[in-house]
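Quick one, tokens below:
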């Protein structure tokens, strides 16, 4: 989504008008509303998430790489069955 020049003033305007306590309460309300909603993929929640991202941008979470796959080893049951033949 591309921010137009008219959208950019909204973020600065909100920051100037809110005290840190009010901003914290607003962020808490947004997070609680998003977490408690029954339909997390609804348009309403997507809009709230977008607003939350503008008010409180957080760095991308660092994803740890997956461990290398382990080699498949036949179970002891399979080895015993094979030995009976």
């Amino acid at each position: 989504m591309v921010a137009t020049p008219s959208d950019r003033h909204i973020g600065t305007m909100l920051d100037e008008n809110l005290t840190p306590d009010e901003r914290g309460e607003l962020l808490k309300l947004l997070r609680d509303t998003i977490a408690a909603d029954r339909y997390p993929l609804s348009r309403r929640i997507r809009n709230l998430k977008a607003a939350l991202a503008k008010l409180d941008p957080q760095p991308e979470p660092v994803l740890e790489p997956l461990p290398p796959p382990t080699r498949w080893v036949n179970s002891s049951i399979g080895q015993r069955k094979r030995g009976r033949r």
